[in-house]
Amino acid sequence: MADAVLIYGDSFRSADMRHAVPLGVPDPFLYAERNGDRHVFSNSMEAARLQELGLFDVHVDEELGVDELVESGVEPRELTAQLALRAVASLGLERATVPENFPVWLADRLRAQGVELDVDQELFDDRRRAKTAAQLEGMKRAQRAAEAAMDACRELLRRAEIRGDELLLDGKQLTVERVKADMSMVFAAHDTTADEYIVAPGAQGAVGHDMGSGPIRPSTPLVVDIFPRDNASAVYTDMTRTFVVGDVPDDVREWHRLVKEALDRAVAEIRPGVEGRAVFEHTCDIFEAAGEPTQRTKKPGETLGDGFFHGLGHGVGLEVHEAPGMGRLSRKTLVAGDVVTVEPGLYRVGYGGVRLEDIVLVTENGAEVLTDYPYDLEP
């Protein structure tokens, strides 16, 4: 059993670091826990902000002899390595647990100095499952931003005029790019960031994470899956709705009915102690009873493109996809504090699909749906 935890990285790209250090720090630094004590090793530029958090002992590079190393003429990369090695040595660590993205160069140097390192990403994933109060508030802010952006999308669809096989808005063809331009302004106005997100018309909506492009056409399903990140907390949300402008094809309407039924059943089943795979299996029951293929019915080695080809949901937090999962490989049981998506969908290759997605907080007594948005197929 390791006697410490080590993380090395910046807190923008490393979710494990951002969870341990809830502050945006752009340059890599070292974080350590040992016997309940928490330590951060940083340059003097970041020290004041880190100290203001009051969560750990902050050690600056000067304590580790950075000036002496600079005077010796050591190269910058070796300087970084020496500071990290001295930081670990100052704590007297002999063994530590690290996440799977711990730098190989640092792991090699530490092991060469006799420090045992155990890679255990599951430990770090589990640390992030129960959200802090600040993270949960950030998620709710991001969710309100997502709903406002979905409103912007729906308003454009409502204003569009059908002209043959085109949708026209102010005399111009309505495109995914126009919709995303309006949605992006909403994200920015709500102090959230969405580097990319899905607005996928027709056949694009049946291709996993195709982000979508080009014209939006009438009587064709449009899958809108958005996952903005709250800038203050760095926490994500995730939601999906599907819209059709004009006449709704019968198969799309039936898919929508089945998907909503699956969503409702899954949310009703979510509570502490329930295995994520079990909720997924019950969604498969609904779809298979309607004659739709699922991952359970496909032949071994077959790539499933039609029907329900993905998992039911996943955890959301400092990453848009994190533990716990709700799919055929999921073995973890849900616990109070988990936040998961519920996103059943049905698709046909070359045609399109329907997906609905809500975000759900697992509570002591069941589940609280954090999404507050209608499911109407017609915008």
Question: Would you mind describing this structure in some detail?
Answer:
By secondary structure, the chain is an alpha+beta fold. It contains ten helices and 21 strands. The strands form eight sheets. Strands 1-2-3-4 form a four-stranded mixed beta sheet. The chain has a three-stranded antiparallel beta sheet with strand order 7-8-9, with helices on one face.
Structure characteristics:
Creatine Amidinohydrolase, Chain A, domain 1, 379 residues, 2 domains, Creatine Amidinohydrolase, three-stranded antiparallel sheet, 21 strands, alpha+beta, single chain
* CATH level 1 name of the largest domain: Alpha Beta
The fourth-level CATH homologous superfamily of the largest domain is Creatinase/methionine aminopeptidase superfamily
User: What share of the residues lie within helices?
Assistant: 25-40%
- The best one-word shape is elongated
Radius of gyration: 24 Å
* Amino-to-carboxy terminus distance: 55 Å
Mean pLDDT: 96
Q: If strands are numbered along the chain, what order do they take across the biggest sheet?
A: 1-2-3-4
CATH fold label of the largest domain: Creatine Amidinohydrolase
The largest pleated sheet is described as: 4 strands, mixed
CATH architecture of the largest domain: Alpha-Beta Complex
Number of domains: 2
Would you tell me the structural class of the helices and strands?
Answer: alpha+beta
H/I helix tally: 10
Low-confidence stretches: none
Proportion of residues in β-strands = 15-25%
Tally of DSSP β-strands: 21
Topology:
Layout: E1 4-9, H1 15-20, E2 29-34, E3 37-42, H2 44-53, E4 57-60, H3 66-71, H4 76-90, E5 95-98, H5 104-112, E6 116-119, H6 121-127, H7 133-159, E7 161-163, E8 166-169, E9 172-173, H8 176-189, E10 192-193, E11 198-201, E12 222-226, E13 229-230, E14 239-243, H9 250-269, H10 276-289, E15 313-315, E16 322-326, E17 339-342, E18 345-348, E19 352-355, E20 358-362, E21 367-369
Parallel strand pairs: 3-4, 5-6
Antiparallel strand pairs: 1-2, 2-3, 7-8, 8-9, 10-13, 11-12, 12-14, 15-16, 17-20, 18-19, 20-21
Helix pairs in contact: 4-5, 7-8, 9-10
